[in-house]
Structures are given as C-alpha cells and as structure tokens.
Amino acid sequence: MSAGFDSPASLLAMARGLVIGEALLDVVTGPDDEALGTHPGGSPANVALGLARLGHDARLLTWLGPDDAGRVILSHLETSGVTVIPASAGAERTSVARARLDAHGTASYDFDIEWRVATSDLATLTGAAGVDVVHTGSIATILQPGSSAVEALLDRLMGQATITYDPNARPALMGEADITLAKIFAFVETADVVKVSDEDLAWLLPGTDPMDVADSWLMRGPSVVVVTLGGGGADAVCRSGWVHLDAPRIDVVDTVGAGDAFSAGLIDGLATADLLGGGRRDQLRTIDTQTLLNAMQRAITVAGITVGRAGADPPWRRELEPR
Fold first, then answer.
1. Which is higher by pLDDT, 2 or 64?
2. Average pLDDT over residues 42-61
3. Taking the CB of residue 208, how many other CB atoms lie within 10 A of it?
C-alpha cells in the first residue's frame, strides 16, 4: 500500500507506540564552552516526544529521579502528550548529558547516567489497547543493567508490535566499538526497522561502505534498514530494492535530536502506509520502494524542521499540514 502525505486520510493514521529508553537533561555549550542553556533530551525520549507531537499515542518507559531535572523532563514530555509510565520514576537522580556544539552546530556528548528498567506486566506498559510499534535504541540498549531488561521486553512484545531500533552510538559511554557492535547485532536481529547514521557506522565499522552494512544487516532479519547521511539525505534498503532521498537545504541551528526526529517521522510514515503492528509484519517485509520513499520523505521533513531550531524540538503535526 502506498500513500501520499497530503491527503486527509493520511492525517488519521495514528499509531499506539511504546518507547523504551533514557530521558535526561541536555546541558548545551558552544564551541568556546559558553553556556547555551538546558533542554530535556535522551534519544528514546526525543522519539516519544516526536511521536506525540505528530498525534500518535506515545508511551515512554524511562528512568527519572525525584529532582528538578526529572520534573522538568516530565513536564516537557507530558505537555506534548507523552504518557510517562509511572514505573519510570524509580531513579535516585535524573541523568545528565553535556552536549558541546561545534562551529557547524554538530553536537558531541559526555554523560552522567544510570540506566535501569522497572519492568511490570505488559498491560501496564502498553495500555489496555496494546501497542502497534515499540521503539528503542542508543544508551538504553547498551548500558547495563537496563539493556538486558530492554532485550527481554522486546522478546515479549515482538508478537504484537513492529520493533524499531536506532543504535545511536555514544562512543564516550559505550566502550570499545567491536564490543558495542556485538550488542547492537542482537537488537538488529530482533528489529523490523533499523535506522542508523553514517557517523555511527564510521565508528562501529570504519572504512566500510554504509550501504554494504545496510545490506548485511537486512540479511540479519529486519524488513527495512535506513542509513541517515546528515546533510546528504538518507539511503534505505528493503527486499524490494534500494532508495535514496536528498535532504532539503536548511539553515541549521543545531543537530540535537535530528536523528530522533527522523525516527519519529519514519514511524509516522509507516503508520500512514498501514504497516505497523504484529499483524502487518508480512506486509512490512514486502514493502515496495515507493512506499518506503514516502515514509523517508516524512522522516526527512520532520528532521529538517528540527535542525532549524535549537535543541530537540520536533514539529507538531499541524506544522506539516498543507497551508
């Protein structure tokens, strides 16, 4: 099924989503270490934020403390419509990331983070109606003790939901690349959709062509593997073929949350094409290249708006509607 994004029907394709992963406070500085402010962040939390602003039912299982940072993050997420699962409030203190922007607005990170998962019955996590898509990635899938719990949760949820995964590598926190890659493979093999950046692959597999990696990862089980290329757009591969989409020309403020916005937009695009949910796995596996290109167009549009403003500030659905 292929669908455009300018039809009224596309605005009704809402998904029930569960995002599992870290939420933290980004403390942002510029090239000369000048303070540029603080923003709620964390890659999975940013994806939940993006989904909620696009009108989806977004639930987040994370790990927050009873402190000012935790209250700021909670308010930020709930104001945008994210349901933060109560079991998320078990940390002694909320994690912090220090993001330093270079002269081009590209962020590098240092972290003060603890990651755990307070698991419970699936009905508590997914809500009474269940979920169509489960997203995870980044620190949540690598840092113990939480990462093992995330993997176990995905095993329990994959029968009812599409699994999407973004490795979103953080070299400063994840240790040796080859050890991290072995952990990433486990999640690639579980996921239906993988989105990875060329920067991630340059660290994980230096000197390897990103599309060769995408092809090899596709053989591990996913239905779609997308490689984002920053200002170069994105490539993707599915069993029907390979597609490329250029990025629009944008005045970049910073890249904080850009990849997470892309992930939210990609999920939104797949919802529009009615390809989410455990019962749609076979249809997703045979996705055609035009439908994939449509979903990527939505993802690039959402990411493009995000990089045009400070921090992880993805667009609301009304910002994407034709005027």
1. 64
2. 96
3. 12
- Decide if 43 contacts 72 (C-beta within 8 A): no
pLDDT tens-digit profile of 234-262?
A: 999 999 999 999 988 888 877 778 999 99
* Rounded (10°) CA dihedral 153, 257, 261, 203: -70
Instruction: State pTM to two decimals.
Output: 0.90
Farthest CA pair distance, the chain = 51
Query: Do 110 and 172 contact (CB within 8 A), yes or no?
Result: yes
Q: Which of 254, 251, 261, 260 is nearest to 301 (CA)?
A: 261
- Asked if omega into 315 is within 30° of 0 (cis), the reply is no
Per-residue model confidence as pLDDT tens digits over 95-145: 988 778 787 767 677 788 899 998 767 888 888 789 999 999 999 999 999
The closest alpha carbon to 18, from 138, 123, 149, belongs to 123
What is d(CA 28, CA 109) in angstroms, rounded to the nearest whole number?
9
